[in-house]
Amino acid sequence: MAVLGTLSMGFQLLASRLLAPHFGTSIIVWAWLISTFLAAFSLGSMLGGWICNAAPHVRQRLQVVTAAAGVVSLAVTALFGRVLLDRIEVAFLPVEAGDLQEVGGMSRALFVSCLCLFFVPVTALSSFSPQCVQYLAAHGTAPGAASGVVYGISTLGNIAGVMLTAFVLIPNEHLGLARLLLLWLVVAGVSLSGLILLLRAPNGRTAS
Amino acid sequence: MKLACFVLLSVLFGSCLAAETAPPATAPRKGSYTETYDTLYNSLTVQREGSIVELRARSRRGEFLESAVDLDDPLRLIVPYSRSVFAAEFFLPNPKRVLMIGLGGAGIHRLFVAAHPEALIQSVELDAKVFELCRTRLGFQPTTNTPVAVMDGRMFIKRNREQWDWLILDAFRGGYVSPHLKTAEFYRECAARLSERGVFVSNLHETTALYYSDLKTITSVFPQVVLFHVPGTGNVVAFAVNYRTPVISDDSTWSADAEVAKPFAGRLNFSLIRNGIRPLPTKEIATAKVLTDDFAPVEFLNSVRTNNAAKDR
Question: For residue A79, which residues of chain B lie inside 8 Å, CB to CB?
Fold first, then answer.
């Protein structure tokens, strides 16, 4: 969970760097970016809670589908993010449109950009928190304690993600944004695979 | 529960779509005063002593003088670097179209308009409050020849397809410039907006390691770059052009001082400005990194002090 937390919030900083050449770094950009991530955390948590209550064989399939959606969407962001942003920028903020200061067009462009590039990966990553709570609870940890441990560790991962990305990874001259996004893709793939295997372990069944 | 979440998200996104910049609410003010403002992007201090109004941006390193205007003599350039910006006259005198990214207190604008009344000087300013204070406190009144767009500078460059004789980049926020305005990709976009003999002008601070990366990046895009040091400050103004000949580092190719000074009616000493030319720090540039949209640790480079910092204090 710490790794997923690290990925989620570190991804937000990478996302801001990805958006900057196209939409700047104004308060409008940050408002959409933060809202998108919070919406993804919200939906991911609800999705994860729903998956917890599915029958075991369905739950396992849903875990694979969710993880695959997260990895594939992250791959799209890492490999085609710039191209997609170019297209979105042209579509929503055409040069021919006279009003250079239009806030509405900028917001629409950012909404579509954030939705296409960041929403699905973060939703997928977030969906595993409730499942970890369920796993711990099924292995004898009291539900309240399990919830506290998972969300506490996840939030520590969030902090680590922000600090690591801001102070170590982005300033590293050998990495760069494109490579960092690929690194995120690899780490997400490995950690989600490991988590799915862990959640499938014996006694890792739901209480229902 | 689902309905409640849907309604909550709809309200959130809807309010963002409907968001507009708040209209100005303050009126011009007289007498000495000190005011502070926390805007969306800056922490600003506006201070009036006598007829001088200063606009300063607060940061962890103290207050940075962004602009200053003498309301009794608005054509007087108080901030030293603003005089060096006019060295662009050496390379392309009598410009018809100028784009300035970063409005500040519009100190440069007033002298420019007085010298070139027929020319257009378009400004782009991200912070609407800066524009408001510029009008209500620093006495700048935009006209059809001095329009101001409130938006991100890079977005303006990308969406505006016009050509500019001078393109001045001076988008500081208390000693800090956003990374996306420091990259090779951005400078290429600027280069593409210059007229045939157009001049790109960038105000730089030589006091941090960012200076060398800045220069490395600018020289990676423009075939020719010339620097003018602003005496007594940490400012260096860089001038870059898209052409290879004539060689602009050779001052015999520049317009004569007397010729470029004529429209300014004695307001600027171009001989003094000319003396500020300094060679490119090629040794330091060689080891610096080009900043790109992929790699631009501007905040970190900006926090590393150079020896130049001590030299100029």
Answer: none
